[in-house]
């Protein structure tokens, strides 16, 4: 499958996943209640922090599968590595799930500020969360292998199926068994178990066959060759998760579950800025690793720069919409004016911070492809040293709005101060060209267009009209970004010439 096909498939899957998540949140709030949705939001954070146990296994497996396709390793080594990772994942998943299971009572009574939900249901729900988090974490290993072989069209389709099972099919279950948070998590447990089974089956179907007479022992010896990279990825993943979720974990302690649900709604919408870049990175990372293994430096550099422009095109229009029109977005989505008034500053600052985060991640893609994450590890240490105290202070003093401001400041500083150092290491003398040609060129028309739209739009009084205005504004900003991108312009001109020749 071509890189373009993988990106298109990934976007189709991500858009479907994101749309279901956005559409279903108001439905869950109506069916389960605001406080119960706060518990669901805590589950998402808990599941994310469970990934801290990954130890770099999933991205390393993806990279080694891509390197196998580039001829840098053999079938026996790849299969032995997968078996070793299965041992690591199994032990850690069981340990992590057991720890969360035993701590469920303490979390329910001492961490969460529950007001009306039955304590027994909350505690049992937390134990079910532990099981789901473990199952989905192990499933990530097989997702990494499948992605490394670039079977991303299948992954996108399977993701749509599991998203439907998780988000939509839970509604008839709630109707039949009772609209309680406990029933919700029982359903998620069943879906997670089936998801793991199908991913394992698919991964083994596409693995290269073993040489005749070879064996795949259950030991850790095959991990020695990738240990340095895996540990670097473990730190990178841990830092990434901490950066994106520390505020959410802290606020789950400070806020009542009902208020936490309102904060989570704003943070969920803002996360769309990062989500839209996910399909590009999923398709990009294996291809960069492959080009690096082949020694194709010119192709590597061209792909990196072209992808930077693509990420700018897909990230900055929603970033500008969510920050410039935050209150209108929340009103059109929830239909609740009070939520829109209270949460729009949170949405605006988080959206801008996520925009800087998505663009700064380009430097990580570069280092991942080269297999050298030393600068990224050090950069994340510096970033966390800045983020943790500022985020803690701002959250304790100003609540969710302070957390958003700290998030924006930290990510802007990282992008402006650290990304140039990474480029100096890998692209000496080319950072300014990358910044102006690949980011500013598509970004400036979007900012100007967003400001102009903000000045002239007169918003209708009904939600549907507001949603339509937001959609049309987003289309305008995407077209402006494409007009400023040399890659997009070249692609459009090439398609036009091909069409005229065929006609």
Task: Characterise this structure.
The chain is mainly alpha-helical and 503 residues long. 85% of the residues lie in helices and 0% in strands. It has helices spanning 3-32, 34-50, 57-69, 75-111, 119-148, 152-168, 170-177, 181-206, 227-254, 257-270, 272-275, 278-294, 297-324, 326-334, 337-370, 374-398, 400-417, 419-426, 431-456, 463-484, 486-502. Helix 2 runs antiparallel to helix 9 (227-254), helix 2 packs across helix 10 and helix 15 (337-370) packs parallel to helix 18. The longest helix is centred in the first third of the chain and has 37 residues, at 75-111. It is globular, with a radius of gyration of 23 Å. The mean pLDDT is 83.
